[in-house]
Amino acid sequence: MAITVAISDPALFQQAVPKTLPAPTNSGIITISAKKLKKLEGGGGGGGGRINANWVDSMRASSPTRRSLETDEHKSWILQHPSALTMFEEIIRSSKGKQIVMFLDYDGTLSPIVEDPDRAFITPEMREAVRDVAKHFPTAIVSGRCRAKVYNFVKLSELYYAGSHGMDIKGPSKGHNNKKGNQTVLCQPAKEFLPMIDEVYKTLVEKTKSIPGSKVENNKFCLSVHYRCVEEKRWNELAEQVKSVLNNYDQKLKLTQGRKVLEIRPTIKWDKGKALEFLLESLGYANSDDVLPVYIGDDRTDEDAFKVLLEKGQGFGILVSKVAKETNATYTLQEPSEVMHFLKRLVEWKRSSNL
Ligand SMILES: O=P(O)(O)OC[C@H]1O[C@H](O[C@H]2O[C@H](CO)[C@@H](O)[C@H](O)[C@H]2O)[C@H](O)[C@@H](O)[C@@H]1O
Predict the structure, then answer these.
(1) Does the beta carbon of 260 sit less than 6 angstroms from any atom of ligand 1?
(2) Chain segment 214-273, per-residue pLDDT in tens
(3) Among 108, 182, 221, 336, which residue's Cβ finds the most Cβ atoms within 10 Å?
(4) What is the DSSP string of 56-93?
(5) H-type helices in the chain, by residue range?
(6) For a pocket test of ligand 1, which of 107, 215, 295, 321 has the largest count of ligand atoms closer than 8 A to its C-beta?
(7) What domain of life is recorded for the organism (predicted)?
């Protein structure tokens, strides 16, 4: 037995899927033998995560190498997902009569990607831009990181913070002048998993300590296993260690992927998209046509939020990326400096329209 699949965009398909799948023909057809299919089905992670094919292929695919911006592939991608700066006036027009609500991812969006996750600092200029945006629009930081850690980087008490991929949400305290960042708890849907996450953290630290460059980060309701500084020849070993730990938590934990990071989180139906919906509801915009949510993010986990906006037909997702990627975002920005530029333009527009 074999199955045949027609692919509408062979170039994007090849970029997005593991190399273990056969390449599509020019007309976009791939045929997968029964043997291959079985192998692919069997290669999944232990925790019911989203990585179903060979883990190392998937880890490579999550870190695409820089490609020329001049290729036809990139040009066609940009036509489909134009720059939010080029389309700025269009975005403003769509906001007429609506309240813009800003959702900002942290790593790779407000701060550049660096080797040491503990040194992913936001620049003072970016902090100022976020502070100004929050003066005019309700603003939330939505991050995979532990909420307290991302608060310590951003240090703006007037914002909403959704840490642990949205599993830990807190809003601004009354008066906003709370320097300690003590905010009212709004939502912690994975509270019962705390002891399990702590236990898995300790086990993973132990199991990965012999792999140079690996780092396990405790994000409170989820964990990150970083491999940015691990030699590629040892990625498989690292993946095997993570898989062996997840296997002991039968379907209770799942694995997702970010930029050179394996992320372990509770198998609950909660993600950055749900966090966005929760925050809109908390702000009084559930089922409202009077709101324009704008979500800016760079990573796979941000796609859950982009998808919610796309399906609602409301607001815009803006993907931060220099390379063509399959995305549910409408627009793109190339890097954090462009994000800052976009935020500043929003503030300038709002100030001038208030005159
Ligand atoms: O949702 P985010 O705010 O984008 O958080 C996702 C992960 O970001 C961090 O890791 C990433 O940034 C690091 C610093 O630049 C980089 O070293 C790492 O390779 C990236 O994956 C954070 O450390 C993770 O815990 C978050 O899950």
Answers:
(1) yes
(2) 999 999 999 999 999 999 999 999 999 999 999 999 889 999 999 999 999 999 999 999
(3) 221
(4) HHHHHHTSPPP--TTSHHHHHHHHHS-BTTTTHHHHHH
(5) 10-16, 34-42, 55-61, 72-80, 88-94, 124-136, 147-154, 194-208, 235-246, 272-282, 303-312, 336-354
(6) 107
(7) Eukaryota
Closest ligand 1 atom number to CA of residue 165:
1
Q: Is the pLDDT score of 194 beyond 50?
A: yes
Which of these is catalytic: 9, 57, 72, 105? 105
- What is the C-alpha separation between 323 and 73, in angstroms, rounded? 10
Distance 78 CA to ligand 1 centre (A): 25
Taking the model in full, what pTM does it have? 0.84
Ligand 1 close to Cβ of residue 241 (< 6 A): no
pLDDT at position 72 is 83
Cβ–ligand 1 distance for 149 under 6 Å, the answer: no
Picking from 80-89, 103-112, 125-134, 172-181, which range would have the lowest pLDDT averaged per residue? 172-181
